[in-house]
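look at this fold:
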Amino acid sequence: MTEYVFRPLRSGVRSRLFSGRYTLTRGETPRTVALGTPDKLVAVKRLRDIIVQKQREEEGLVTPAPLREAAAAQLTTLLAEFVADLNGRKRSPKHARDTATRCGRILRETGWNRLRDIRADEFVKWRSTLALSAKTTREYQAAFNSFLNWLVRLDRLMVNPLGKLDAVAIRGKQVRLSRSFSMAELVRLYGVAPAERRLVYQTLTYTGQRMSEVRALVWGDLFLGDVRPHVLFRPETMKDADKRALPLHPGLAAELRAAKPEGVRDDAPVFKSFPDLKTLKRDLAKAGIDRMDATGRRVHFHSFRKTFQTLGATHGINQRAAQEMLGHSDANLTAKVYTDVAALGLHAEIVKLPWLTAESGDALIHSLSSDLPRRETRFKTLCLELLSFSQSLKFEDVTELESSFKWRARRDSNPRPPA
C-alpha cells in the first residue's frame, strides 16, 4: 500500500499546500488528493483519515460519502441539479422544463423531502389519483424515473426505488384519437384561411414537423434556391434535440420565396403570428370540416403531421424516407401510428374477397365452374380500384373515368375476331 504527502510542483514552482497520494491494494493506480494545508503533520493526519474512510467504505462498514451527502440533501436541491445537468447536456429546453414540472409536482403532492421518503407503494397510490390520460401519466413516471436513474449513475443512490414498477399501458387508451385530413378538406381549409395562415398550414402539411418546430423557424433556416430548396430544423427547436434537414416541396418553396420580405434578417421568424387551436377551429368550421368523425377521431395540429405520412404512403413515398423525415427512431411508429389506415383506400383491397353468406353456396359453385363470372369479378374490382384512386390518376372528372369503363366493357363483350 502506498501512502505519502508532498507539495506539487507546478510550472517550476513548488506549491505551498500539501497533497497526498495513496493506494489501497497492490497494483492499483495511485490516487491523488489535495489536503489543503501547509503543515506536513496535519497533511499526514488528513491523508490517514481519508485512507481509513475509503477502506471502511470498500469493506461495507460505512456508507460512501456521495450516498451520505445525497441522503441528507433536500430532494428539491437534487432535482435542481438534475435539471441543470439536462440543460448542460444541451437537451431540449422544453424537455428540461417538462421534467422539472412533472418531478416537482410529484414531490409536492407526495410530501417527499428526502431520498429515504421515496416508496414505490406511495407512488402507486399517488398515480392512481391522477385525473390525466394514460399517456400523460406514463410521462410523469418516466420523468421521475429518469431523475432517480441519474442519481444511481452518479453513485448518489444505491438503487431506483421505482425501478420495478410497470409503466402505464397506453395502447388503445388515447384520449385524443386523431385522423389525417383528406385532400378535399385541405383544399377547403387552404381556401378559407388568409395568406399568412394558409402558408402555416401548408408548411405543417408538407414538412410533417410538429407545431412547435415549425413555429420556431427563422428565415436563416430556409434555403430557397431553385436547386434543391430545403429547410434546416435546429437541434434546440426539436423534440429529439437533433438537427434535421428536409427537402421542400417545389410548391411550398415557391410560396415561401414569395412571402419572404425584402432585406429580412436571418434571425427574424418566418411566421410573425402563428395560429392557435382556437383559430384552427374557426378555420375548420368556415371550411365545413367536422373536427370529430363518427368514430370519435379529431383533427388538430398534429393531424397535419399525420397527413404528411398518410399522403406519402398513398403516393408512394418510401417508408424509410418518411421515417427519416418524421424523425422516428422506430419504423413501426411511422407505419402504424402516423399512417392513417382509414384514408389509404384499403376498401379497394377488401372488395377482392368474395362475399359469403348462408345462401351463397350455389353462386360460389357456379362462379368456380365458369370462367365468365371470374372475368366480371376481376373487371368490377378494377373499376373500384380506379374509382378509389381517380384523383391520383389525374382524370379530369368522374364522367371521363366512367366513359373509359364503358369502352372497356364494350371491348370485352365484343372481342375482335381473329384475322
About this structure: The two ends are 106 Å apart (CA to CA). The CA atoms of residues 188 and 287 lie 5 Å apart. The chain has a mean pLDDT of 77.
